[in-house]
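in:
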C-alpha cells in the first residue's frame, strides 16, 4: 500500500510549505517511512538543501488542533528552557485537503541500537535541563495539550497540590476513557478508583513544580551528534519523576540516561518505589486507545502489576 504521505495532495502541500520556508522552489525527491516510530503516519520527504519531517493527521476536526498544541508546547520548551527543538517548516502546521500536516526540518539522528551511552546521557541532560525550570503552580494555564490522541487538561487545580493534580487531571480522565472504551476489565477499574483515594499516602514528598516534557518516552528525543532534541512534547508543570518514569515505559532505556540526569539534578531515593505509580495514567491511555489489539492489551497486565505494587 502507498504511504499516506505520498498521496499527491499531501506531497504538493509539503512542497508548497517547504518552498515558502526558504523562499525558493523545493521538490521532494525521495521518502523514508517512519511509521514504526509514531502514532501518526510519519516520514521524511527528502530534498535539497534540506529534507522535511512530516507527520499526518487525517482527522479533519481535531488534527489541526492537536498539531497546533504540539507546536505551542515545543515553542514553550524552547523559550523557557533554551532547549533545542526541531525547526518548523513554514507555519509548522499545514492544511492539506481534509488532512493536517506537522512539518519540521529533518535532522540526522541515531536511533535504536545505533544510540550510544553518550546519546542516552544527552537525553538525561536535556530532561534535567527541562526540570530546572520551575513555576509556582502545577499545570499550565496558557493552553491544554494532548497525550497521544487524547486531549489533556492542564488547568491548575484549586488545592495546588501535586496529589490532587495527578488524580484530577491525569488519572481520572484516562480512567474514564479506558472504561468507556470497553477495553478495561471492571475489576481493574475499581482497583484504580481505590488507588486514587490512596494517592496522598503514595505520592511521596510534595515536589516543586518543574517543567515537564509530558510524554518523555525515549523515542520522543532525537539524538544527534551533539545533543538530544525534544519532539512530541506535551508540557506542563508537574512532578519531575513522572517524566523519568516514562523514559522506559515502552522499552528499556540505558542507565546512562539516568546517570546523565543526575549529573545535573538528583533523583530522590524513593523514585524506584513510585515509578509504576506515575505510569498508571499512561497505561490507561494506551488501553483506551488500542487495548483491543495485542500491543495495547499487554498494558492491561502492566496496569494490574502497577496496582499490585502500589497496594502494598
Amino acid at each position: 500500500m502507498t504511504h499516506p504521505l505520498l498521496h499527491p495532495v499531501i506531497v504538493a502541500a509539503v512542497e508548497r510549505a517547504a518552498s515558502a520556508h526558504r523562499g525558493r522552489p523545493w521538490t521532494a525527491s525521495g521518502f523514508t517511512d517512519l511509521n514504526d516510530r509514531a502514532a501518526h503516519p510519519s516520514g521524511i520527504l527528502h530534498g535539497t538543501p534540506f529534507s522535511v519531517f512530516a507527520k499526518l493527521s487525517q482527522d479533519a476536526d481535531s488534527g489541526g488542533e492537536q498539531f497546533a498544541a504540539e507546536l505551542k508546547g515545543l515553542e514553550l520548551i524552547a523559550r523557557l528552557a533554551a532547549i533545542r527543538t526541531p525547526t518548523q517548516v513554514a507555519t509548522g502546521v499545514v492544511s492539506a485537503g481534509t488532512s493536517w500536516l506537522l512539518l519540521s526540518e529533518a535532522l540526522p539522528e541515531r536511533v535504536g541500537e545505533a544510540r550510544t551511552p553518550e546519546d542516552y546521557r544527552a537525553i538525561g541532560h536535556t530532561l534535567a535541563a527541562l526540570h530546572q525550570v520551575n513555576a509556582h503552580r502545577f499545570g499550565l494555564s496558557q493552553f491544554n495539550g494532548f497525550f497521544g490522541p487524547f486531549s489533556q487538561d492542564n488547568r491548575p487545580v484549586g488545592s495546588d497540590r501535586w496529589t490532587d493534580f495527578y488524580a484530577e487531571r491525569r488519572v481520572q480522565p484516562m480512567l474514564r476513557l479506558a472504561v468507556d472504551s470497553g477495553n478495561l476489565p471492571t475489576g481493574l477499574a475499581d482497583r484504580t478508583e481505590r488507588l486514587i483515594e490512596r494517592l496522598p499516602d503514595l505520592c511521596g514528598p510534595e515536589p516543586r513544580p518543574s517543567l515537564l516534557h509530558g510524554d518523555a518516552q525515549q523515542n520522543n528525543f532525537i539524538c544527534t551528534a551533539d545533543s538530544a532534541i525534544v519532539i512530541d512534547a506535551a508540557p506542563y508543570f508537574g512532578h519531575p519523576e513522572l517524566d523519568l518514569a516514562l523514559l522506559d515505559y515502552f522499552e528499556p532505556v540505558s542507565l546512562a540516561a539516568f546517570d546523565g540526569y543526575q549529573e545535573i539534578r538528583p533523583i530522590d531515593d524513593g523514585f524506584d518505589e513510585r515509578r509504576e505509580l506515575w505510569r498508571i495514567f499512561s497505561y490507561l491511555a494506551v488501553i483506551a486507545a488500542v487495548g483491543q489489539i495485542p500491543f495495547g492489551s499487554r498494558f492491561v497486565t502492566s496496569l494490574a502489576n502497577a496496582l499490585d505494587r502500589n497496594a502494598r
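note: The chain has two domains: 4-105, 112-309.
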